[in-house]
Amino acid sequence: MRFISISFIISLVLMSAAVFADERANAANKMLVKQLRLIHLVEPKAKYQHQLTQLTYGKPTKETLEKIEFDIANFWAQRHIAIRDTNTTNINDPLIRAMALEPKMDNYLQLQNRISHLRWLAEHQQWTPIYIEGLIRPGMSHKSLLAIADRLMLLGDGVASAQSAESLDDRLVNGVRRFQRRHGLNPDGIIGPETLKWINVDPMERARILAKSFVQKAEFMSQRAEQFLVINIPAYEMELISQGKVELESRVIVGKPYRQTPLLSSAISNVVINPSWRVPKKILFNDLLPQVRIDGNYIEQREFDVFDREGNQVVRSAQQWRDLAAGPFPFRFVQRPGVNNTLGRYKFYFPNDYSVYLHDTSDPKLFNKSYRALSSGCIRIENVEGLANWMAANLVKDKQTWVDRHIDRNKTQWFALNSTLNVHLVYWTAWIDKDNLAQFRNDIYQKQSINDASDPSVAHINNL
């Protein structure tokens, strides 16, 4: 019978401990790499690229790890986003420290999974642009359909049998529609310029769009009060959030690209039933006076009152208004309240330097359009009754007068609130939705530069 020496047992224990330590160190490095990849997408600095190289191709020293961990924690702290644990200075286990550095963000795991998938696509799939002329409608055949079907499958919108795509059949149409819905397009199943543009966006660009907007939204949400209204301009969407839950949502119409809705934060301080509309100068000269020059009856037909600089009402014939509109025009327009008023039934006022506010509309059919950058800067709300009722139930002081004023459609009434409601106009072009799907929207105001050619690390990051 052979006996195992104590020294041999000790050696095995030490070897096992060393292997265990190496495994945990390797696992920690992988977690740090995933974090740095996300951070580098948001903020493409050379130092993050260098740290990725150190973790990927070398064996970082204790001092190097401490610097990397500090920079990751600092990145989230600057954005007011909490991490899982800030007190790790006395923890020797690198894996526990790496886990503690993860940000406490909703859908963080889904974000990392989506970015990992997009990186895999960038590394293993050719993403050369697909070109078509005209439109590919359901039932049509086209030589590019096979490539388009492959893209949809790789992005999670298509079907596994894409290799047999010879025509835009029902299964492929359904994939196109899913893709269009995820990109805020009209889900008509027709492959046209806008749909093809998004199909051609390469995976790393998608990852950058998603990472930047996701972190922007997380930073915003980390600093909000318990109750607020948020309008995401590129998404044409409004949400009323209370106690961390969405209580009300609505489609909205925002400003045109040349009359942009501004990004701002303020607070709704008054609600107006049956508002009149004092026409801003720019809209008067750019939009209304050209109509008056065509037809002087436009003023009466649209129920405008006209005032001079002293505030006196001015009355002229239709021909006189046509003649006056052709030259200098020292008057202002005020549209009377009523069913034809441009602002509709409600106006939600919040102080700002841009003279914008939330309001109803006299043209609700516009909400059915997928492209809704159609206003002169103000925000039109589809579910305006829902917002008005919520305000009446929760914030309006004089509830009886609120009920009474709904009887008379032509009388304006301002209502004070028990407390203000914070409102934020934001600009996020991508997010993870409640079904864990990555949503993308057009950069309608051209505010985001995705490809930063000035920093070579943006191109190099895909190799790390």
TrEMBL record:
GO terms, biological process: cell wall organization; peptidoglycan biosynthetic process; regulation of cell shape
Catalytic site positions: 359, 378
Tree of life domain: Bacteria
PROSITE patterns recorded: LD_TPASE (PS52029)
Protein name: L,D-TPase catalytic domain-containing protein
Sequence similarity: Belongs to the YkuD family.
Keyword Cell wall biogenesis/degradation: yes
L,D-TPase catalytic domain residues: 227-406
Native species: Shewanella piezotolerans (strain WP3 / JCM 13877)
This protein's record includes keyword Signal: yes
Database matches in CDD domains: YkuD_like
Signal peptide from the UniProt entry: 1-21
Keywords for this protein: Cell shape, Cell wall biogenesis/degradation, Peptidoglycan synthesis, Signal, Transferase
Pathway: Cell wall biogenesis; peptidoglycan biosynthesis
GO molecular function: carboxypeptidase activity; transferase activity
